[in-house]
Design brief:
The protein is mainly alpha-helical. About 50% of the residues lie in helices and about 10% in strands.
Length: about 475
């Protein structure tokens, strides 16, 4: 039972925490579709005007609802085309969902990267016509913030008198930043790591807890990052609470291991001076606080540089719009497998019996045999054709997409390298907003105020001397 409290329970807490961070990780939304920028406008706007504006500024390869056709490479007068246009299994109707947001309040257009140079001009033109438009940001994961945290952690380990312990403690905020790569989270973890480094000054000294509780600097450095992360998001805030829990757990394990080694010796060294007699701020601690200020400043600059006002929507609901996305956990929109099934139905519909059509789902290996009549040397000759629903047909379906004479939604789906269904996700960018920048400024103020206060305090001491 003693070893259970000492090691098993803390290790279990750490493992569960890491598992929860992995399962409930929150990644910033980046592109909804690889290779495409999503533009959305209220459905009340005339699509002809929108498409004319896109073409006027060189965006000719856009994908819209109006330029979709029946996705078959056959004659429009063939029975396959006519039955395909009838949409037997509902694929064509469901496909329309790609051109609206979840609430059907906004129309959606897809602009390929080859034409993305025209987007600013298009948005400006639409705005001049009092047409509200917005686009999904192409900003990616803020790796700069992760790099800053990683370098800061190495810096702390290098200057720490307890390098092993510091490395073990820093693992958790670094891991959390990697799993939740938001600028505000990185700044909060930077501050929290500074608090841990300062607290190690009183490691294993009598009255350490009481001394730390009375230190305004420690309180500010511990609680401000929690507040910042909670303001970023409730889910992030509750997950961030796992970080101090893990830190306490690993510190407890380290302390117990040290006791086991110390009890092996006949003499156990004890630190004579209690925490109340030790000055919290040393030159090393001041350097770490200044480094924290520099780190939060770099994160702020990185966030400002990535802040792009890509949306000129006059409504405040822009970030709450749910647009079609391959990254969504939902599966409301049809995928290429649905297209493959629909194509089979369209190509074989004229040649199947009504009884066979009662089968709701196409079975793999199913074959349809039908006659073909061709004229040769003035005679009509009969031949027998067959279509089998197998991997060869599936491959042929995907290859046929490249031969479409229009900009099809299927071509965009094919470029994603994913044949499953899609859903809806938020239209926001990587979380960088004016509010996020305000949080980053608050994060800079924490070490900044401490540095100014410490500087004035030292200046006052010099004048007294």
């Amino acid at each position: 039972m003693k070893y259970f409290k000492q090691f098993v329970l803390p290790v279990f807490i750490i493992i569960v925490s890491i598992f929860l961070m992995q399962i409930f990780r929150v990644m910033p939304a980046s592109r909804l579709w690889n290779g495409y920028t999503v533009m959305y406008l209220p459905v009340s706007q005339d699509s002809k005007i929108i498409e004319k504006t896109l073409e006027e500024y060189g965006c000719n390869d856009y994908i819209s609802l109006r330029n979709q056709k029946v996705p078959l490479n056959v004659s429009e007068f063939s029975p396959e085309y006519m039955f395909g246009n009838g949409d037997a299994n509902g694929y064509l109707e469901k496909r329309k969902g790609y051109f609206f947001d979840f609430s059907r309040s906004y129309s959606v257009y897809y602009i390929p990267d080859s034409s993305d140079n025209c987007i600013p001009a298009v948005l400006k033109k639409l705005n001049s016509m009092n047409i509200s438009a917005g686009i999904n940001s192409s900003s990616a994961c803020p790796w700069m913030s992760i790099l800053v945290i990683f370098v800061f952690a190495i810096l702390q380990v290098w200057f720490s008198p307890r390098r092993i312990l510091t490395a073990m403690l820093n693992f958790f905020p670094v891991f959390f930043t990697f799993k939740m790569p938001f600028y505000s989270v990185a700044s909060a973890c930077c501050i929290f790591m500074t608090a841990m480094f300062i607290c190690l000054r009183y490691w294993n000294r009598d009255g350490a807890v009481r001394k730390l509780q009375s230190s305004m600097a420690v309180i500010m450095f511990v609680f401000s990052p929690v507040l910042i992360v909670f303001l970023t998001g409730l889910k992030l805030g509750f997950l961030f609470l796992l970080v101090p829990i893990d830190v306490l757990a690993i510190a407890y394990i380290y302390f117990e291991v040290c006791l086991i080694f110390e009890y092996r010796y006949s003499f156990r060294p004890v630190l004579i001076r209690p925490a109340s007699m030790i000055n919290l701020m040393t030159n090393t601690n001041r350097f770490v606080v200044i480094s924290c200020l520099a780190g939060t400043f770099l994160i702020f600059v990185s966030a400002v540089l990535s802040l792009k006002n890509v949306s000129i929507m006059e409504t405040s609901a822009g970030s709450g719009i749910l647009l079609p996305s391959k990254n969504s956990s939902g599966r409301e929109l049809p995928g290429l497998e649905d297209f493959n099934s629909w194509r089979w139905s369209a190509l074989t519909f004229p040649y199947r019996s009504l009884n066979e059509m009662q089968v709701s789902k196409t079975q793999k290996g199913q074959t349809v045999v039908f006659p073909r009549y061709t004229e040769k040397n003035g005679k009509i000759e009969k031949s027998v054709n067959s279509i089998t629903y197998d991997d060869s047909f599936r491959k042929d379906s995907f290859n046929s997409i490249d031969d479409f004479s229009y900009n099809s939604i299927e071509s965009m789906l094919k470029k994603q390298g994913y044949t499953g269904r899609a859903g809806y996700s938020g239209a926001g960018s990587s979380g960088v907003s004016v509010f996020m920048c305000i949080l980053l400024v608050i994060a800079m103020l924490v070490p900044g105020i401490f540095c100014i206060r410490n500087y004035k305090k030292n200046k006052w001491r010099e004048t007294r001397q």
